Each structure stands twice: as structure tokens, then as C-alpha cells.
Amino acid sequence: MKKADIKKLLADFKTSGNNIPGIFNYCDYWCERCPFTSRCSNFQVGEMLDEHQASKDLKNKEFWINYANLLAATFEFIRDKMAESGFDIMTLPTVEEREQMDKDDAETENDPLSIEAHEYMKACHDWCEVHFDEQEKILKSRKLAELTINHAIEDAFSVVTWYSTLIPAKISRALIKPLTGEVVEKQDADGSAKVALSGIDRSIAAYTVLYEHLSEYEDDILRFLVTLSRLKEMVLARFPDAPAYHRPGFDD
Ligand code: SF4
Questions:
Q1: How many angstroms separate the alpha carbon of residue 39 from the centre of ligand 1?
Q2: Dihedral pair phi/psi, residue 53, rounded to 5°
Q3: Is residue 45 a contact partner of residue 13, using CB atoms and an 8 Å limit?
Q4: 30 pocket-lining for ligand 1 (C-beta < 6 Å)
Q5: 192: which of 30, 47, 173, 229 fits an S-S bond (Cβ 3.0–4.6 Å)?
């Protein structure tokens, strides 16, 4: 699909009155499991563009041409919309502004909360990777009567894997230094922290399932549970208003 066609599709997209404005700002991006796909503009735009993709084969040249066009068209669409609102995203920051932004980024990256969350992500990925084959064998060796348990174990692995990436991403966003100190920035930090907290709770529940059924990994699982509990306390200490933040749709 050509860039101009994509831009036209985006410009013509009409959000349904049933959609929940901004719901995608504080979700976990797990659309496959989201109960709000029919009320989310972000999901609907994605579906609409997907329908117009000529090929979804990653090896297909046309797929990558389409993908490049999609990125370029989306960028231009956003730039035009911002220009209409008086923003020029092509204005480069001054040297001083750039230095300050780099300093702020480094501060966020070196924040103990961010470090803890990223270390957890790495440990979880490493653990899942090392034990993936083993876990497959264990599941296959179980009897048919244990299929429900197998499903629960597979699901728990999916949950911990998904949220291990989302948790540090949302914590990093919550830690971004406010630029203006406006209320909206604090709300965004609380909303992001709330998504991280929800991911932590779901991961704890998933590890509990793994703990129940995979005694082989008891020590590892207990370590993850301790790490996540500590992480949760750290998030709550830093963002005490996060639990009360009202996420559109999810907290209605
Ligand atoms: S709100 Fe739901 S459908 Fe929309 S982007 Fe988030 S997870 Fe996907």
C-alpha cells in the first residue's frame, strides 16, 4: 500500500462513539486478551491497516515496503496533526536542552527502581529461555488427565514473560522527569505506575501457579516472588497515588 493511501486511511478513520478515549494509554498492550478491543481506537486502526496489508510474510519484500510506508505515513500524519495544533516537531532542541534531556534519561536509567525492574526482566527472560525446552518436555511427559494443569502452566509462562517486559517499560515511563510540573504529568506517572503494579500482581499470581505445579523450580520461583514483592513495595513507596489512579475503561 502506498504512503498516500495509508495517510488517507488514517485521516478518514472515524472513531466510534462507543470507543473509550485514551484507553490505550494505560493498558498492557496485550490486545489478544483485552476485553476492550471493540472500544479501542488504537486496536481498530491497527486492524484497519492490517486488513490493507498485501502480505504478512516477513520474508516478502512487499511486506517490508508496506511496513516502511506505514511508518513514514504515520510519522507524517502525526507531524501534520501536531502542526495543526501549533507544534513543530522538526524544531531541534538546543544543545543545552539536549544535554539536559540526556542527563534526565541517565537519571531515569540509573534510578534504583528502574535498575531493579530491568534486572528482574533479564533474570526472567534468562530463566524462561534456559528452562523452555525442559518445561516442554515436562508438559509432554504428563498424562492426558493433566492437560488442564498443563494449560495453566503454559498460561502462567505466557503471563510472566509478557509482563516481565512491560513492568520495566512502565516503571521507566513513570520515572521520566516532569518537564513542566503540570498535574497531567503526575497523572501520567501514576497511571504508568498503576499498569506496572497490575503487571506485578498478575506475575505474582502466575508464579504462584508455577510454584504449585513445578516443584522442580521451587527455589527459582520463590526468588522471583521475593523480587516482585520488593519491586511492588518500591513502586508503591515512590508512587503512593498510583493505586487510586482511574484508568479509562479498566477502572470504570
Ligand atoms: S486497550 Fe486493549 S485493545 Fe487497546 S491497545 Fe490496549 S490492550 Fe490493545
A1: 9
A2: -70, 130
A3: yes
A4: yes
A5: 173
Contact 177, 144 (CB under 8 A): no
Ligand 1 centre to CA of 35 (Å) is 8
79, 90 contact by CB (below 8 A): yes
In sign, the C-alpha dihedral spanning 187, 193, 199, 205 is negative
Q: Cα(29) to centroid of ligand 1, in Å?
A: 5
Atom number of ligand 1 nearest to Cα 37? 3
Chain centroid offset of residue 188 CA: 15
CA 230 – CA 116 distance, rounded (Å): 9
Cα distance between residue 209 and residue 228, in whole Å: 15
Lowest mean pLDDT, pick from 43-47, 108-112, 129-133, 195-199 = 129-133
What is the C-alpha to C-alpha distance for residues 128 and 230, in angstroms, rounded to an integer? 21
Q: How big is the CA angle at 137 (ends 135 and 142), to the nearest 5 degrees?
A: 100
Q: What is the pTM of this model?
A: 0.83
CB 250 near ligand 1, within 6 Å: no
Q: In whole angstroms, what is the distance from residue 121 CA to residue 166 CA?
A: 9
**pLDDT reading at 56 higher than 90:** no
Q: From the alpha carbon of 29, which atom of ligand 1 is closest?
A: 7
- Report the distance separating Cα 239 and Cα 233, nearest Å: 10
